[in-house]
Design brief:
Layout (H helix, E strand, L loop, with lengths): L1 E4 L2 E4 L9 E4 L18 E2 L26 E3 L13 E6 L17 E6 L12 E10 L3 H6 L4 E4 L2 E6 L5 E5 L2 E10 L8 H6 L11 E5 L6 H14 L11 H6 L6 E10 L5 E9 L3 E5 L15 E3 L4 E7 L6 H14 L4 H9 E6 L4 H5 L25 H14 L4 E10 L5 E4 L6 H17 L24 H6 L9 H9 L3 E8 L32 H19 L13 H21 L6 H12 L2
Parallel strand pairs: 5-11, 6-8, 18-19, 18-20, 20-22
Antiparallel strand pairs: 1-2, 1-4, 2-7, 3-6, 7-13, 8-12, 9-10, 9-13, 11-12, 14-15, 15-19, 16-17, 21-22
């Protein structure tokens, strides 16, 4: 929708946009309604249609308005306005699902505000301060009390920044209300030091134009398509690096070493692409192509090439929940690394064929939903019983992994997510039938800890409750509004049951950051931080942090697969190092069984001791 009011035009008809409703003025109970000229009325711009585009050239795909706050207030405590507030807007997000059948999920917001300080009769003579008050968010107050702040950017500044002001929150009738203040300004104004300080910046930006606001750093369907296009062009046969300066040539990947294939696995309900990328080295490549699978690959063209049996499959996916944009940023970091000239990446490509599905729920992303698809369904609970008609992207994903599993070569499946409750980054795994598999899971988690200084092993979960079966399909209403009843329908559980692979995980990163202080890497070989940069003190995750998490995930796999290699992050090439690593994993394993009230038999303990004696 597009709304105009005095100096402002609100819009969400773009990629990831969702604007439900706007009203002018504070609530009466807040006793702080600013004076409003009769000419300043809020109206919908009926001339703007959903097919129209913004100045950015993006089609409508994911934005949503709401209110936030990081200072906790009681239900009856008024959210007070700053004295200098010039305009006050109450905002509502549109819930996931159709208008006829909305769900309770309604937290993601992403919208633009075009500010024109020179509208006749309303010309600004000082910075213009606006209060955004979101009225209907889900119960995510903990994120804001931890320190989460919405982000913004100007069309002339492509980098997203956290808003300078501190949001405030409270619960009213079961809904989270959140508000934050923002200062608009323009070039002609002359400001005092106090006014500049109020803006939260060192200087007032000139010609502000259009601002974008979002719950967290957005990552739209269009952004993904552009990123894949760049990768595709980079590895297109015949592409050259001759134009690169000598310094960059050494860093640029030799495209003769990388096999890259892009395909469309299926179309979504709204006819968006479910992309799938195949990445490997050209070692062991065959002349044959993958066979056609009924119902899949609607776009004409050749399928991916086949590889010899020595290579195993690594399946990586993300964005089954639309608002979890941090998962897409982590996926970019992973892809940037495995397509690079790094020696560890080269060895990973020689061992694995990477099958990457970057956006499992493109419809939800395009519509600006929080957790659901076009109809508000949580697609991460339907893997046991996906329907081609109702859940085509999950149905196609499962069908294709089943095809790969027929070779017995699927070794890793990792689904990337964002998390609103647990802080830090961590793994969810499965409860597996024997002690050796459990040992291997915890060994992988240990290498994640070694390579990711922001990894919190204490938040990892491999408990048996996740494996409780769901014998019948849950009602649609429960999938929409109470989807956490069972984890059996999640990707990691269903794909484990399908493939039998030990390494099936959900990798999570909190929207905000970590509850732990940042720590130095365990090893000087850790590539998480830039070599010459100091370790940041801030607990909040940056885009660079999230990309580093994706990269560290790939390096953790390298360490598991090449434990004695000179490039392995932890020095376990000597006997002491191997025993120390083994003892750490066994200690965590015993605690995990004890916490789940499952005794370890003498036979199982003896297996662990035999494993230690071989080191």
């Amino acid at each position: 929708m597009k709304y105009s009011f005095a100096n402002f035009v609100f819009d969400s008809e773009f990629d990831s946009g969702n604007l439900g409703k706007i009203e002018l003025g504070a609530d009466v109970s807040e006793n702080a309604t600013p004076e409003i000229s009769p000419k300043m009325t809020l109206k919908r711009d009926k001339s703007t249609k959903s097919s129209d585009t913004l100045l950015t050239g993006l089609s409508r795909q994911s934005s949503n308005l709401t209110r936030q706050s990081s200072t906790k207030l009681g239900k009856d405590d008024p959210i007070k306005l700053a004295i200098e507030t010039d305009y006050y807007f109450r905002l509502w997000t549109s819930p996931d699902g159709s208008k006829e059948s909305p769900t309770k999920n309604r937290t993601w917001f992403h919208f633009s505000v075009e500010f024109n300080p020179n509208v006749p009769e309303f010309e600004a003579t000082k910075p213009t301060t606006v209060m955004f008050h979101f009225k209907n968010l889900n119960k995510v107050q903990r994120l804001f009390t931890m320190g989460l702040r919405p982000v913004y950017r100007n069309t002339k500044d492509k980098q997203w920044k956290r808003i300078p002001s501190t949001p405030m929150t409270r619960y009213v009738d079961g809904a989270l209300e959140m508000q934050f203040q923002f200062v608009f300004s323009h070039q002609k104004c002359s400001y005092s030091k106090e006014q500049i300080s109020m803006s939260g910046t060192k200087s007032i930006p000139a010609n502000p134009g259009t601002y974008y606001f979002a719950y967290c750093v957005p990552y739209s369907y269009t952004t993904l398509q552009n990123y894949i296009n760049v990768l595709q062009d980079r590895f297109r046969p015949g592409s050259s690096t001759k134009s690169l300066i000598p310094l960059l040539k050494s860093l640029h990947i030799n495209n003769q070493d990388v096999y890259f294939h892009r395909d469309v696995l299926i179309r979504s309900l709204n006819n968006h692409n479910l992309d799938i990328l195949t990445i490997s080295s050209k070692e062991g490549i065959k002349n044959d192509h993958e066979q056609s699978i009924e119902g899949l690959f609607p776009v004409s063209g050749s399928r991916s090439r086949l590889f010899n049996e020595q290579k195993q499959y690594f399946v990586l996916s993300a964005r089954v929940h639309p608002a979890e944009t941090n998962s897409s940023i982590m996926l970019e970091g992973f892809l940037d690394f495995i397509t690079s000239n790094d020696p560890q990446a080269k060895l990973l490509r020689s061992k694995f064929v990477f099958k990457v599905i970057p956006m499992l729920n493109p419809d939800g992303v395009v519509l600006g939903h929080y957790r659901g698809d076009k109809y508000g369904l949580n697609l991460n609970r339907v893997y046991v019983y996906p329907s081609k008609e109702q859940h085509p992207t999950i149905w196609a994903t499962k069908m294709y992994i089943e095809y790969l599993a027929e070779t017995g070569q699927v070794k890793y499946y990792i689904d990337l997510h964002g998390h609103a409750n647990k802080a830090g980054s961590f793994l969810f795994g499965n409860w597996l039938p024997n002690i050796k598999q459990q040992y291997e899971q915890l060994l992988f988690a240990k290498y994640c800890l070694i390579n990711n200084p922001l990894f919190d092993f204490g938040e990892c979960d491999f408990a048996p409750k996740a494996m409780l079966p769901s014998t019948i399909q849950p009602p649609v209403e429960q999938l929409k509004d109470n989807p956490e009843m069972t984890k059996d329908g999640t990707g990691r559980v269903a794909i484990y049951r399908l493939t039998g692979a030990t390494h099936c995980y959900t990798f999570e990163a909190n929207y905000y950051g970590s509850k732990l202080e940042r720590r130095l890497p365990y090893s000087s070989k850790c590539k998480f931080y830039d070599k010459n940069s100091k370790v940041p003190l801030d607990k909040r995750f940056t885009v660079a942090d999230l990309k580093a998490m994706g990269r560290s995930l790939a390096i953790a796999v390298f360490d598991v697969e090449h434990p004695a290699h000179q490039l392995t992050s932890l020095r376990v090439t000597d006997q002491y190092g191997k025993i120390k690593l083994h003892d750490w994993v066994v200690d965590k394993l015993k605690r995990m069984y004890s916490k789940s009230h499952i005794p370890l038999s003498e036979e199982e303990l003896s297996k662990l001791e035999k494993e230690r004696s071989r080191l």
